[in-house]
Design a protein that fits this description.
The complex is a heterodimer of chains A (120) and B (112). With 120 residues, chain A is mainly β. Chain A is 0% helix and 49% strand. In chain A, strands 2, 4, 5, 6, 9, 10 and 11 form a seven-stranded mixed sheet that branches. A four-stranded antiparallel sheet of chain A has the order 1-3-8-7, with no helix packed on it. In chain A, a hairpin with a 3-residue loop joins strand 4 and strand 5. The radius of gyration of chain A is 14 Å and the shape is elongated. Chain B is mainly β. The termini of chain B are far apart. Classes of the chains: A mainly beta (120), B mainly beta (112). Chains A and B meet through strand 5 and strand 10 of A and strand 4 and strand 5 of B.
């Protein structure tokens, strides 16, 4: 079974604090993603990574940065937390974005349990 | 503009009853469509995956259908249980296989 874990289920921080959200996957997946989820807006992609030390901006990268020093770990960083970053943060991973030998793209995303972040 | 629209936003049904959730999309061309179940406070878990050429896919009491001509998908839940209470999210993936379009979900509550 694929397992994606996130460092915290609940987190409360103050405005201006630096916040680290950690995500680890144990299936040697190449791709990792960070989303935030807000009521009525669905999942929105913040950043993603297709390889170690590689990162790409998603749809809403402002106010966030990421780090992928090891294949299994993808960190989301809020340099200076603000109240509008209060949200549910979901990490996901998938095997690859290129077709395998059979021509299939194994891009099903497996999600972690989420981190509910509150910024006061 | 959201390219995946789900309806209804929320739904309450009695335990044992059936229900159908709808997903309309404009993503074209696309490679596959997925339905996820998300329990409150948890991450989404995949229920069904259908390629553009498939019409139906079942997973236990869950049956997803796809009409690529009308760009509609539905998720039918049979003999609902209290544990079916969750948010159900429709996701459409583009033909390149790397761009995911998420619906905002349908919140289902099953009451005894």
């Amino acid at each position: 079974d694929v397992k994606v874990t996130q460092s915290s289920r609940y987190l409360v921080k103050r405005t201006g604090e630096k916040v680290f959200l950690e995500c680890v996957q144990d299936m040697d997946h190449e791709n990792m993603f960070w989303y935030r989820q807000d009521p009525g807006l669905g999942l929105r992609l913040i950043y993603f990574s297709y390889d170690v030390k590689m990162k790409e901006k998603g749809d809403i990268p402002e106010g966030y940065s990421v780090s992928r020093e090891k294949k299994e770990r993808f960190s989301l960083i809020l340099e200076s937390a603000s109240t509008n970053q209060t949200s549910m943060y979901l990490c996901a991973s998938s095997f690859s974005r290129v077709p395998d030998a059979a021509g299939l793209i194994r891009n099903e995303q497996f999600f972690g349990p989420g981190t509910r972040l509150t910024v006061l | 503009k959201n390219q995946v629209e789900q309806s209804p936003q929320s739904l309450i049904i009695l335990e044992g009853k059936n229900c159908t959730l709808q997903c309309n999309y404009t993503v074209s061309p696309f490679s596959n469509l997925r339905w996820y179940k998300q329990d409150t406070g948890r991450g989404p878990v995949s229920l069904t995956i259908m390629t553009f050429s498939e019409n139906t896919k079942s997973n236990g009491r869950y049956t997803a259908t796809l009409d690529a001509d009308t760009k509609q998908s539905s998720l039918h839940i049979t003999a609902s249980q209290l544990s079916d209470s969750a948010s159900y999210i429709c996701v459409v993936i583009d033909d390149g296989g790397n761009q995911f379009y998420f619906g905002t979900g349908t919140s289902l509550t099953v009451i005894p």
